Each structure stands twice: as C-alpha cells, then as structure tokens.
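Narrative progress, year one. The postdoctoral researcher (J.K.) led the effort to move from monomer predictions toward full complexes, under supervision of the PI. The following entry was the first complex the group processed end to end, covering 822 residues in total.
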Amino acid sequence: MSLDLLLEDGVAHIDLVSSAAPADLQLSGVGKDFQLRRGTSVRALDAVDLEVGHGEFVALLGPSGCGKSTILRLAAGLESPTSGSVTVGGNAPEEMARSHGLGVAFQDHALLPWATIERNVSMPFKLARRTVDEDRVAGLLELVGLSEFAKARPRQLSGGMRQRASIARALVLEPKMLLLDEPFGALDAVTRRRLNIELQAIWARDHISTLLVTHAVEEAVFLADRVVVMSARPGRIERIRKIDFERPRKPELMRSSEFHAVVDELTKSLDDHDEVVGP
Amino acid sequence: MSQINTDLVAPRIATRSASLPKVGTPARATDSVSVIRRVGQGIWNVLGWCVRRYWGVMALVLGWHAYVTVLDINRIVMPSPGAVSQELLTNPGRYVDPTLSTLTVALVGLVGGTTLGASLASLSWFARAINGLLTPVAVILRSVPIVAMVPVLARVFGYEQRTILLITVMISFFPTFVFVSSGLRATPPGSEDLFRVFGARRLTLFRRLALPSAMPNGLVALRLSAADCILAALVAEFLMGTEGLGHVFQDTIGDLDMLTAWSAAIIATIFSVTLFLITRRLERAGHRRWSA
Amino acid sequence: MKSQTTGSGLMYGAIGVVVLGVVWESAGRSGVLGTTFPPVSDVVTYLADPAYRTLFGRAVGATFSSAARGFLYGSAVAILLATSGAVLPAAKEGMDRFVASVHAIPLIALGPLFIVLLSRTGTPAAIAGLAAAFPVYVAASAGFDDTSQTHRDVFTVMGSGRWSRLRHLQVPAALPGIADGLRLAAPAAVLGAILGEWFGAPRGIGILIVSSMQNFQINQLWASAMLAALISLTAFALFGALERFVVSRIR
C-alpha cells in the first residue's frame, strides 16, 4: 500500500501486513481488456494495485460496470489479466483453485438443485477427493442456522437461507482466501442486514482473508477492515478507506453516528466521482 | 398429455455458425518462399477446418473403403465407395427418373402437410375447443410410427403415387400441427395482456403476437418432417413397388444387384442429408429472427 | 398449453380419442373407404380372438426383443458418444455433425448394408439401435451443456477436475433431458425394428403387417398395425412417467 493512500485517510499507520508476510491476494498493475467483435476491445480495468493482507477483510465498492466483479474473477482464476500480475498466497489463482484453497459465493447461490443442503455443503470435499468431514459440515450448518434444514433441497428454502448454505459451502474446506461476489445482492433489505450481522459473527471467529464485492455502502462499512472505492470506465481504484470499528462488531454499530458518518463519506465519494465521469 | 419438448429439437447440435477460416493474409511479400509458406499455411488451415467438422463423415467413408478392401469382400456382395461413385458417374441416366419421382412425392407432401398442419393449428387457435379435441389425437399419432403404418395405408388407398403423397402429407401434418399449436400459445409472458390493454383485436393479436412466436416451432417441425418424408416415400415405394428409388432398391436387392442397390441408397442418403441441412439452416435463421 | 394439461386437458383428450374411435367405427361400418377399411370393433375382436394368440404373441415377442435390444445398445452408444463429446470438447463439433449425418440417412437405405454385415435376424435390432440413438445423443449432449455459468464458475473455483465436474454437475443436470430423449427413442426403436424386419427377418410384427398386406388379410393387417402402435404408445407413456419422476428428483 502506498503512503499517500494511507495518508489520505488522515491516519499514518505502519502497514504491518505487507511488511510481515506476503499478502494473501496481490494485484500489481493489473489491466484487463475484453475483446469485442471485429477486433475492438474495451478496457475494464486499468492499473489496479490492490492487496488483501492475511486475515484481512476488504470490500470493493463501486457503481455497476466499474470492474469490481472482474477483480474478483481475476482473483478466482476465472479470468486472466491482460497486463500486470495476480497472485493468491504467492501462487497463480488457478493453482490455488486446483489445490482447493479458494472459497467462493456469488449472488446466484449456485447450489445444486438435486442435492440436499447437507450434500451441497459437503460437495467441496468430494471435488477435492477427500473424505467428507461430517462434523465440520454439521458444525457449519449449525453456525449458519440451517441444522434443521440439512435434508431439505434448495428450492424448499428461502433466498436468505440459500445464501447461508452457499456461504457455508464456501467455508467448508477452510479456504486460504474467501471471495464473495454480491452474495446478498438479490435479497430484501431486512434479510440482507440480518445476513450481514451473521457473516460478521462467522468471520470474526476465523478471520479468513476475504474479498467482498458489493455496491451497498453500509454492507461494506459494517463488514470490512478496508473499503476500496472504485470508479468506472475504465475501472480504477479511486480511494481506499480504512474502517477502524472495533471487532466483533455489534448490530448497534449500524445505528451509531460514527458509522453513518463513514457511510456518508463513502457515499459522497461515490457520488462525486459519478459526477465527474457521468454525462 | 405428453409435454412437447421443443428444447430437445431446437437447434442444439453444433450451434456455431458455419464460417470459413481466414486463409492467411494475401501474400504481399516479394520472396517466393514466404508466398509458399502462406499458401501452405492456408491449405493447412482449410484442412484442419475440414477435419474438425467432418472427421466423422470422412471416417465413415474411409471405414467403408477399408472394410471392403481389407476383408477382400466380393464386390457383388458389397461394392466399394469407388465402385459406387464410378457407377453413378457412368450410368447417371438410370437414376434420374426414380430420383425425381421420389423427391417429388416427398417434397410436395412435405409442403402440403406442413401448410395444412399450420393452417389447422391457426384455425384452432381461434377456437379452443377444436384445439382441445385435435391436440391429444395429434400427440398420440405423433408417437405412433406412421412409417410402419405404410402397408395399411397402401392397402386402403391403393398402390398408387397419390397414396404415397397422402402418406407424406400425413407425416408432416401431425408434427406441424402439434408444434405450431404450442408455438401459437407460447407468447412472451405478459405480452398478451399488454396487447389487450392497448385494445388489440383478436386478429391483430394473432398476426402480431401469436404467429411470430409460432414461426420457430413451425420450422422445427419442418426439419423433423423433412427426413421422415423422404424415408416414408422410400418405404412406400419399397413395399408397393411402384416407382422411385425405393422401387429400384427392392428390385435390385431381390436380384442381388448390390451395386445398383447401393447406388440408389447413396443417392437417397445424399438428398436426405441435403434436405436436412437446408431445413436446419432455415430453422436456425427462423430462430435468430423470431426467438428472443 | 401447460395450464390446460390438467383436468380440462385430460377431458378434451378423452373426448378426442372417443371421437376418433366413433369416426373410425362409423367409417368402417358405412364402407365409404372400401372393404379395406374395417370398423375398429372388428379389429379389436380379431386381436382378442384366442385363435390368433400364439401368432400375435410370437410376432410381438420378436419385434419387442429387437426393439428393446436396439433401444438399449443405441442409447448406451449415444450416451457414451455424448459423454466423450463433453469430456473432449475438441471432438464435439465433428461428432455432432457425424451423428446428424448418420441420422439423416434414410433407415431403409441401410438395409443392404446390414444384410451384408449382419444376419437377417440381427438387422431389426441394428436398425432399431440406430433409430433410437439419435434422440438420446441430442438430449444427452444438450443436457451436459445445460449447466449455468455460475455453477461452472463455482466448480472451477472449487478446483474441480473435468471428471468431477462431469460426475457431480453435468450428469445430474443432463438426466431429465436424457429421460426425455429415451421417451422419444422408444417409438423410434419400434419403427426401426419393423423396418428392419422388412428386409427379411423370419418373424415379427413387421413381417405380419407386410404379409397380410400382400395377402389381403385386412383384419390381420389392421390388428398388427394396431399392436405396433400400442407397443410404441406404451413405451412412450412409460418413459414419459420416468421423465416426470426424474424431473421431480432433479429440479
């Protein structure tokens, strides 16, 4: 992390993360072009430098089309950068995926409709050709409050419950890096807030290095250690805001004035930038 | 009622459009080595393209040739691909009339049956009762192998060309009726309400909404019926021994004149495959034009 | 159309079948279509006559066994081909073309080939197999591709190999489609077996149909054709039930 970005928030602190161990996710000078028809291409990302330290929760915040999902897909090894480099735990993301070190959850829960919730959550064990750790699966289902629904099929569950199952599946192999792409994006506001609180509690136990993509400012501020604000066309990192609220964070935090001050500040920086770019 | 799975018959096989690869950039280089290299590269590209698309068909012909030569089969029992193509090139006159006869009944029947099926389906769109009565019957008859019923129809209507025509009409009628009926009803959700809100009359609804949404289905039915029509015509000719390629077959197999039988079979195959390719292209064009 | 699949659809269906039966019966009785068009009651009586039970029994046995063998082998080969296309994407395009071209060959044009390659008794099963293979191949290869992008992404990120993906994602996703393909393959196999019999099998429904056509045995002709239709319809209905069961399990 560069010094001016640190200073931007008015707090000069020593970045322990990057000086101690290598970051769990590291993007250096990443650019990404998508080929359109007839040889033209569009630049989705430009000169992105980003890292997620060990045990850190980073939220990517920005308007739709700013390339935040592309960053997540690069980290997941689903895309490769046009320029620059992406590493997860010092390795190529594809390699990390092959050694089953990544956990992922998308807006679409992507549970297998023919399998029970229990079998869905234990699927990563099967893909890794390991014996299913029944206790681990049961414990996770307990943690996300789905123990009673272990034998249910996804279509019998509500949207929020499916997302809980999807997150349990992402966590089951204790991944080195957790990637969340708008996991609560399709839920109603009340359910979303409740799941944010739950995710916060789950995350506080293990501190798995996490990259969350979202367009909800409150969600980003409540969950993250750092919020990365992005702008669109081409996708660039606009600013990075450190969030210092004490952990574990309680639901009351969302009603505090300090919390709202940060949310307002970040909302403003999103809006400001929109004015500059927008027509 | 059995559900009609248009998914299965929709254009799924090899959806990529057929486009020739670029055969290298025109050689601008002055040295001939580079020109040869480019030409070589071009030939190589075209070869690779052919192999990727047609390896199955090539393997089939090569396998046939290898089977005949390696096992040294008596050419009276099974002629080689070379012998068949030589026969077709030296005696094309023998096959012109039978081919025309078969193609005529198959195509006229196909067009007639499709038109009839689509018209009746449209008519029953306006009167649901007709549709309710006709659809189950059509669905049942669609799952009955009509081609196997050719002998019955031949007996009832006589050993004549018009019987074959009737059979090919029937064969294309039922699938068209079933598919067009379901297509007329498969309008985009909410669109009928929208049209009603705008005060559209039933005829307008039919022309602007139901008909366009039925077009892809109608073309699917056309493709499904096309191969069946040729098959039915051949079968009818084979069993009744009137005229056409099917008759050539029946005649020559009886006389163990396998060269002629195989040549007739190859002609029938070529036309059937061609008709299949044409109708599949139509179906895809229709899918692009009318499907969301 | 789906909305009326329930009560009213069933009623209309029943009425439709009854109307068909009445029209057939009265057309036969009045003789407008000549002596070769018997009323449906005559055909049913003929079928039920114990005197012909062994004749029909042996014919049905032969045709059913050819159709069933063809159906089994044809479906198995089709699923195998579709699976290799799913695992080897490079070969898929050529395979699709190959299968479509083979399917476009008129089944009857294959007669001379099978008579050379196989015995006359084997030909019905072989043609039935070819006829059944096509719908199953189309259904299976479409089914293997019928997975959502997100599902594929999740499997990739979870480090799934090609075979794990096939086993845990593509195969279950393809099952409803394959069941539907089997449903369409059943009548196709019956037709294939009958066509194959016309090339000189010793017995079977197809033989019965052709010989009664040639010998003006009208009732026997219609009865055999009705049997063929019934076998085909029963298989169609059975696999339709299987399909509904699979869909309820998978989706």
